[in-house]
Amino acid sequence: MDTRVAMISIVVENQGDIEKLNQILHEYGSYIIGRMGLPYPKRNISLISVTVDAPADKISAMTGKIGMLKGITSKALYAKLQEGCSEETD
Fold this sequence. Notes:
This protein is of the alpha+beta class. It has helices at residues 18-27, 56-67; strands at 2-12, 32-40, 45-54, 72-78, 84-85. The protein has one domain (2-79): ACT-like. Chain A, domain 2 (Alpha-Beta Plaits, 2-Layer Sandwich), CATH 3.30.70.
């Protein structure tokens, strides 16, 4: 299956749906390469960066679900790599 490498940026302005956000990230956990979260108390927000290697439709579905959460926004930035297979070959 062809996959894309992408960075998903998430801004959490409302902590109310953070549990739902974590459920979504868990749902797509098999595609996640890494995740970094930074709280920013001065502005009362959290910034999360998630790196994925997944089919484009899965990335779109994940960012769409995250974007529907109240007070949480997300955007995906795709690497300019050719689509690749997630399975290793000899």
